[in-house]
Structure formats: C-alpha cells, structure tokens
Amino acid sequence: MNCGAKKGGCESGGGHEADEKLKAFTEDQALVHRLSKIKHKILVLSGKGGVGKSTVAVNLAVALAMEGWKTGLIDVDFHGPSVPMLLNMKGELLKADNGGGILPLESLYGVKVVSLGFALADNDEAVIWRGPMKMGVIKQLLAEVQWGDLDYLVIDFPPGTGDEPLSVAQLIPDSSGAVIVTTPQDLSLQDVRKSINFCRQLRIPILGVVENMSGLVCPHCQKVIEVFKSGGGEAMARQMGVPFLGRIPMDPQIVGTSDEGKPFVYHARESQAAEAFLRMIPPVLALQDREDPLRHSGTKAVPPTKENNLKSLKIAVPTASGLLCEHFGHCEQFALFDVDPDKKAILKTTMLVPPPHEPGLLPAWLQEQGADVIIAGGMGSRAQELFLGKGIHVVTGASQEVPAKVINDYLNGVLKTGSNVCDH
Question: Is residue 77 within 8 Å of 54, Cβ to Cβ?
Fold first, then answer.
C-alpha cells in the first residue's frame, strides 16, 4: 500500500514536472521562431535611470523607420514605461489575434510598438510584482508578439544591471548590439561603466555610447551652455575601449515635443539635438551592410526587405510646426513620403526645406523631387493648374494633422477633406 501510494505519488509528480518542461520547451520554441524573423535586435541600455534612455530608443526607432526600414519597438521597463507617452499612445491597450498571439500597435511614424504600459488599464498604477512574475510577462511578450518580418527591433531595457535586464538579455542571445546611454556627470558615468561590463560578460556587441543632456541649447541665441559639463561620456568610452556615438544637447523645444508625444527626429529635424542624433545612427544602419554578401563583390545587392524595388508613389505634404500646413506656400518644410499604394504602406520619409515661395517655383521644385501627389489644406486655382501641368495630382481641404496620419488616411481611402481654404 505504502509502496503503491509512493509509486503513484512519484508518477503524479513526474507527470507534472514533464508537463512543465514541455510547456517551457514550447515557449522557448515560440520565442526562437518569433525572433528569427527579426534581422537585428538593438538593445538600448543604461546603468542608471533618468538619463533619457527611452527618448533615445524612441527616436532611434523612428529614425530607422524614416530611412525606410521595417522597425519595431518594445518597452520592457515595468516601473517606468515611457514609450506610450513619447509616441502619444497613452491609453491604448494590447490586443490578441485569433491565434492567441499579441498584436503590436501601429504608431503614426511607421513603427510597430509594444509596451508594458499598454497592458496597464491605469497609467498611474504601480506594478508591485515579484521577480518570477515579471520574468514570465517579459518572456510572454517576447514569445507571443506577432512582429512579422522586421529589419530592426529596438528594445528599451529596464535601467541597471540586475535581474530584469539580465533576464531580457538572456532571452535575446543573438542581439546585434547595444546602444548605451549616459549623461556627462560622474555619477551617471560610474553606473554606465557597469553596463559596458554587463554587455561584455554576456558577449553583447557594443555599438557605442550616447552622451545625452550634453549641454543646454539656449532658446534665445542657440548657443550650447554646459550646465552639467560635457565630454564625460566620450572620455569614459575612450577609457573603456568602446565607440562613442556623439552628444545630444538639452533643448527646450525637445522637452516640449517629447511631452506632446512627438519624436524630435521627426518634428524638430532642424534642431541641434536632432542633427546630433541623426549623426549617431550610421553604426546601426551599417548592420544591414554587414549581412550583405555582395557588398564587396562588385555587384550591387538589393536589400531584401527595404522595398525600393516596388512600384511606389511620392506624396508631398507641406508642414509647419510638425503638422500639415494649411497653405503650401507658407510651409516651413515639405514632408516627402515614398509609399507603396498596393500595400498601403509608407516606405520612406524625407523632410526638405523648400526654396523661397515665388510664382511657379514650388511646382517645378516638387517635380524635381519626383512628387506625384501633393496634399494641402488650401491652394489657389492657378497654383493647382501649375501642379497639374507638372503631372502632380492635387488634393486640397486636408486638416492640420501629423503628416504620417494624413498619408495613412489617404492610402486607406479615409482622408477627410473640407473646403479649400485658399481658393483664389
């Protein structure tokens, strides 16, 4: 009896253990399958909180999408998920597909986004979970999100080098590299050194160090004032033998756009901060070249997922302060979108400063840029005739929205247009 009971108990326990092992194996296989469709996983790390790590991650993802690459962004910071606010997506919630997978949300900037903030019904809710529960949620997110094929997945890590960053890093063993964010102060640099050693111990390639908040751009004279001093990140990177990607100054304009959920590489492209940031991304873009077997063979290879080879349209949108400008002649910049009309997708975004507004000049200039369509709030009848004479279709009556939303609505046939605000 006792032996039988003992035997039965052992068999029952063994069956439970086998079920757990099978479950863990199945989850691991799903994780490997999902991540295998992503070419480059970029980790954004910092040994210290409050250094602008999430801001760097968001703007990196948007900059890659603006270059035409299929890009995703995942925010795995439990206690301070900032991505929903930085992309103006607060209040949105994750949804499941019919197969039980998690669907990423689509931002206005062509980036697929997942954040732990999308799993919380209340943005002010404190996450008081123990380690095993946190790790289970992180693993579920990584294994079940239906990213599809991506060129880049940018991963906004929790700060520090403890259990949470370690677990995420170990779940992504084939990452392409890490971007490490610091500020110039010694207090931050001390913790960032730990992040560099963290990457080395886990054999994660280090793409480089970003020195954020490196001086303050004066809103009056545009000169940079060294509030916290600068250069500490560069000196530390040199001492640690890792690449230095550059300095991003503080700019009151950037603070405002970030609070409004407008990435500064898109909405403040002419700012010193955006220009500095865009100079930092070539090492990330170079990852595509490294995987190209024909790069040095004398044969020009076509990138496998960057859809330049597809039939596309180029749509021009006049902008002012980051929004569609009511009159094309009063705009600050033109946003030029390369789009695939069949897939209803934005392939690439280019921001250009137009020449001075003189009669007949902008239609000829936009024709030189290859524009097929212009969408504006208002346009005089003579200007419309000039655009049509250059083979550029004209849409008027569009409202002042983020240009990417205007384009997505136009591609999906839901763009609402009112009266032409400048019909003369």
Answer: yes
Which one, of 308, 309, 313, lies nearest residue 410 by Cα? 313
DSSP code, position 199? H
Q: Which of 184-198, 240-254, 299-313, 368-382 has the lowest mean pLDDT?
A: 299-313
Residue 322 has pLDDT above 50, yes or no: yes
Please report the beta strands in 54-191, taking only residues with DSSP state E, as ranges in sequence order: 71-75, 95-96, 102-103, 105-106, 111-115, 150-156, 177-182
Alpha-helical runs (H) found in 241-290: 252-259, 264-267, 272-278, 282-290
CA distance 266 to 149: 24
Contact criterion met (CB below 8 Å) for 345 and 410? no
The C-alpha atoms of residue 47 and residue 386 are separated, in whole angstroms, by: 57
Closest CA to 56 of 163, 156, 148, 193: 156
Q: Rg for the chain (alpha carbons), in Å? A: 25
Beta-bridged to residue 349, according to DSSP, are: 337
Q: Which residue has the higher pLDDT, 362 or 22?
A: 362
Decide which of 374 and 25 is more confident: 374
CATH 3.40.50.970 fits 313-411, yes or no: no
Among 29-33, 72-76, 83-87, whose mean pLDDT is lowest? Answer: 29-33
Calpha distance 241→235 (Å, rounded): 10
d(Cα 217, Cα 249) in Å, to the nearest integer?
6
- Tell me which residue of 211, 267, 250 sits closest to 66, measured CA to CA: 267
- CA nearest neighbour of 141 among 90, 199, 78: 78
**CATH 3.40.50.300 location in the chain:** 29-290
| Structural contact between residues 229 and 186, judged by C-beta atoms closer than 8 angstroms | no
Residue 367 CB partners (closer than 8 Å, separation 6+): 390, 391, 392
Which of 237, 213, 239, 216 shows the shortest CA–CA distance to 226? 216
CATH class of 29-290: alpha beta
